[in-house]
Automatic annotation (TrEMBL):
<keyword id="KW-0472">Membrane</keyword>
<keyword id="KW-0812">Transmembrane</keyword>
<protein>
    <recommendedName>
        <fullName>CXXC-20-CXXC protein</fullName>
    </recommendedName>
</protein>
<feature type="transmembrane region" description="Helical">
    <location>
        <begin position="69"/>
        <end position="89"/>
    </location>
</feature>
<feature type="transmembrane region" description="Helical">
    <location>
        <begin position="46"/>
        <end position="63"/>
    </location>
</feature>
<keyword id="KW-1133">Transmembrane helix</keyword>
<dbReference type="InterPro" id="IPR026369">
    <property type="entry name" value="CxxC_20_CxxC"/>
</dbReference>
Length: 99
């Protein structure tokens, strides 16, 4: 779980999960209110994790599986990715460039 770089408080899974859907560049610590940013490494991990359901789904379509099976597998994969995303969050005090 991410740790605030200002107050060293570890965020809970629920707090982190809610922050996934904010789509803001900066995150606010729920304890001290300090502005935090996702690290470059975290953003890279999030990009890779978001692609996993697509990478798994394409070969399933190529195998001509029934749509119900493909959709079921995609939903389970999507739920698993969303469940694991908060564990890959790391925070910094300053916004880092992607390159």
């Amino acid at each position: 779980m991410p740790v605030c770089q200002h107050c060293n408080t570890e965020w809970t899974w629920q707090q982190t999960f809610k922050k996934i859907f904010t789509f803001k560049r900066s995150l606010t610590c729920p304890e001290c209110g300090a502005t935090q940013y996702l690290s470059r490494r975290s953003r890279n991990h999030m990009s890779i994790l978001a692609m996993i359901p697509l990478v798994i789904g394409l070969p399933l379509v190529g195998l001509s599986l029934p749509a119900s099976i493909i959709i079921s597998i995609q939903l389970v994969t999507f739920a698993a990715v969303l469940t694991w995303m908060p564990r890959f969050y790391t925070l910094t005090n300053e916004e880092e460039a992607m390159w």
